[in-house]
Amino acid sequence: MSQSQAQKKQEQDAYKKLAQKHQPKPPLLKNVIMAFLVGGAISAVGQAFINYFAARGMPPDKAGAPAAIVMVFLGALLTGLGVYDSIAKVGGAGAAVPITGYANSIVATAMEFKREGWIMGMSARMFQIAGPVIVYAVVSGVVVGLIRWFLAGVQ
Amino acid sequence: MSYLIAFVVGGLICAIGQVILDRTKLTPGHVMVIMVVSGAILAGFGLYQPLVKFAGAGAAIPVSNFGYVIVEGVLRELKMQGAFGALTGVFELAGSVIAASIFFGFIFAAFFRPKS
Amino acid sequence: MQAVQTAAKKVGKQSIAFQNPPKIVSTFSIVGPKEGQGPLGKDFDTVLDDSYYGEKTWEKTEAKMVGEAVNNVIQRANLKPENIDYVLAGDLLDQIISTNFGIRDTDIPFFGLYGACSTMAEALTMGAILVDGGYASRVIATASSHFDSAERQYRYPVELGVQRKPTSQWTVTGSGAALLAAEGQGPRIVGATVGKIVDMGVKDPNNMGTAMAPAAADTIAAHLQDFGKSPRDYDLIVSGDLGEIGLSITKELLQKQKIEISDRFYDTGLMIFDRAQGVQAGASGAGCSAVVFSSHLVKELQAGKYKRILLVGTGALLSPVTYQQGESIPSIAHAVSVEM
After folding, report:
1. With an 8 Å Cβ cutoff, is A72 touching chain B?
2. Distance to chain C for A151, nearest Cα, Å
């Protein structure tokens, strides 16, 4: 590092320290409580559908899939109606982490980029946020599955 | 009772996500990715299935479930048909949610426009 | 060694003193509904009913606002487009499309500027140089931004469920224009200080106030130094737009240099919205200082509430590409001194 670079670095560090005390902290406790309540409520709604499908005679471990599909439908609908971003403003991760948040990320981007065309706009961009989620789910799922299979196989 | 457990467990998973959001510079997209990878890893240790059994939607509705169902599908197919199962099993259980999100995503995006 | 000549109208290190100060003979501002509901709502000339303004996309909306601001500021001065020598304008979008498209039908020679949120101050400075230098009799300085078009370019689709960080700023929907002329009545642009790019290594795109504060402090200090002025020579020093965090950091940075401006230092990003409007650290966007200057500030000057103000436009010169590549945020501030 040259002398001028070192000096620049020192200046930047000093500024970082000075700026630090002016930074507002996110209201962590309030945010976490709201995330808990909103995420919990969405999960409870999901439970209602699981219970409903189970009551219709579906085995409990099979009722999760149709319930998830209904939740995706609801997340997509509320996004289209312009409601989901308001829920997220209050709920933060409580709205982003449930499967409805995943649906929201697809509809929100698809709607936004429809103006750039139905193919290269809407359809290409609908995975801007959901794409990485699918990519990492698949890659980690395959890797974890193979490791588990290999270890179990050796046993 | 099932509602209460789903509420508490689902809420707690989201609360963890919120701590990540507020304590780091990561975005909701990052948090979703962390959740699915965590779900897959927990599934690898055989821990996610008991959680789903216990909490129902509390574990099945957060996106972490997505990592779990992919691992489950992969393991099932690996047992049935060996190494190729690692790929043929990926969307066995997870496929329906992806299909639903693409289909509904397309339909709603076609009919609505962003409101600001 | 040969002595380096200094230009006659240049003052100090980086400032200009105008010898024939151009007058701001008319202004016009057009804003979105949220801005209309804010504390300055009644000062704006046009308030839109919704964020689309009858257009299909927000880019078109923004371009339409730019066109209306330019046309109206000309009409207000009882002039015609052919009486205008140049338009100097810019906005936040890539290739400053809102501006290019907004004024393409006006038939006036045009300089496109980019200075992020400092664009209005940059346009006023360049416009004053043209008029004072005798290269133009009348020019229009204008800048614009639109919350939704900026969100989709810099951040996320607006319907995406994202909680805004307390350090983030809310992009103003609006376009403000000022007509500068050699002859006429109105507040005069007497001086300007052109900023340097300052980068103190801040990387968080959700914290532009912290990124821009060092640039603002640098330019304000240079301005006072170059003109040999004290903050008390101004009734108001108004940045556009540091937001709450950037404002308080700038105050501290200047205090460290023994410059006390706290009692007369304010920010357009804190004037345009009420805290209850949910804008976190305040407002931002090229349109913010443009509409506040072209409405409220010029009106206050005309009403005699202020005799001298210093408008300090501050810009965070980042793009989604640079922050995704982990680059810090280069920032700039330009100061324009306006007297009634």
Report:
1. yes
2. 38
In chain C, which residues have their Cβ closer than 8 Å to the Cβ of A109? 157, 160
- B58 within some domain: yes
Whether A45 is covered by a domain: the verdict is: yes
Which residue is associated with the tokens 């306006």? C338
Inside any domain, residue B104: yes
Residues in Cβ contact with B20 at an 8 Å cutoff, skipping those fewer than 6 apart:
A93, B26, B30, B31, B34
Contacts of residue A35, defined as CB under 8 A and 6 or more positions apart, other chains included, come to A91, A92, A93, A94, A97, B11, B14, B15, B17, B18
Q: Which residue segments constitute the domains of chain C, with CATH numbers given?
A: 20-181 (3.40.47.40), 188-339 (3.40.47.40)
B65 vs chain A: nearest CA distance in angstroms?
A: 9
Establish if B40 belongs to a structural domain: yes
The residues in C 23-52 lying below 8 A from A, measured between CB atoms, are: none
> Is the residue at A116 inside a domain?
yes
HSE toward the beta carbon, residue C103, CA cutoff 13 A:
31
Interface of A with B in 86-115 (CB under 8 A): 88, 91-94, 96-103, 105-108, 110-112, 114
Whether residue B116 lies inside any domain: the answer is no
Domain that holds residue B31: 2-111
| Most distant pair of Cα atoms in chain A: their distance | 75
- A84 contacts in chain C (CB < 8 Å): 159, 161
Domain encompassing residue A99: 27-128
Distance CA C133, CA C42 (A): 36
Q: For residues C268 and C260, give the distance between their C-alpha atoms in angstroms, rounded to a whole number.
A: 19
Q: Which residues of B touch C158 (CB under 8 A)?
A: 114-116
Please state the domain count of chain B.
Answer: 1
Number of independent structural domains in chain A: 1
Q: Mind listing the pLDDT tens digit of every residue in chain C (340 residues)?
A: 667 788 889 999 999 999 999 999 999 999 999 999 999 999 999 999 999 999 999 999 999 999 999 999 999 999 999 999 999 999 999 999 999 999 999 999 999 999 999 999 999 999 999 999 999 999 999 999 999 999 999 999 999 999 999 999 999 999 999 999 999 999 999 999 999 999 999 999 999 999 999 999 999 999 999 999 999 999 999 999 999 999 999 999 999 999 999 999 999 999 999 989 989 999 999 999 999 999 999 999 999 999 999 999 999 999 999 999 999 999 999 999 999 9
